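INTERNAL AUDIT FORM
Audit reference: QA-55
Scope: verify that the stored structure record matches its stored sequence.
Auditor: D.O.
Record contents follow.
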Amino acid sequence: MSADLQAVPDTTVLDLKQKQAAYHDWESRSYEDKMCISYDQPCIDYARGRYDAVIDEPTQGRVLELGGGTGFFSINLALSGAIAGELHVNDISPGMLEVCERNGVKNGVALHAEVGDAEALPYPDDHFDLVIGHAFLHHLPLPGKALMEAQRVLKPGGRILIAGEPTELGDRISWFVKQNTWRAFWGVTALPGLRRFRAAHLSEDGVDPYDRIMSNLEDEVDLHTFRPKDVAHMARIAGFEAVNVRTEELLANWSGWAVRTIEGSMAEGVLGMPWFRFAYRSYLALTEVDERVMRRFVPAPLFYNLVLTATKPQS
């Protein structure tokens, strides 16, 4: 049943963190479909690839994922064998964590899901062996404070691994990719007989007012893009040592955003398995080109995804 406008919260009175929780609760219903999240070999390989690029051996102790959402990063890492200890997943959104708990049960991964604020974690000092996160830091009002909290809850010698954060320049380039893909899609589907290929939410007719209002929060919850050197500086200020920041995905990212724009705009049921196989194989091929060729010639800040790893000092 559609919600009426009186049932929809007035988002103008919410602070930033309340908006984050409200938006991600709403998005939890379709987030995994939107982002093509799965718990099979392609996503397992993706998660393990981020881990292996910066950490040499599996983690056996306590692991905490910050901004864990539906569990994409931590559950796939657990399935890969990269993490084998006690797993905690923290997020500000109860709706996301409900999906995360279901995913853990479905995939045989034991985890403790806890609602919390990454800038004020509900855990004692020196508690975890590894803190991880994927594409969450850019949602936080004070990302440096979250790094300080991560350092606090890590044991001496513990590691942090944060991946999937947008770089400043990479995000600017991807914006043009998304906009031009959208314009091309909109123009093609404006031709006679092709409007039926547009997703239902692209029309105001019949759209639930709750969905309309909550979707408008998307631009308000993406707060930051990052320069690699600034993230390294934040990590050092937070008390970490052996700080390393690398970037990845250039051509693969451009292709990925074009693919996701089309998938998010297309009517349900139009795209089939051949499309998804094509998209995945293209991503793999372009990732290989990025690593073997583009990295030699293109400055690191132009790549889209940022990966941070660092260590808490022993004393």
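Auditor finding: record pair retrieved intact. The two ends are 57 Å apart (CA to CA).
Action required: none
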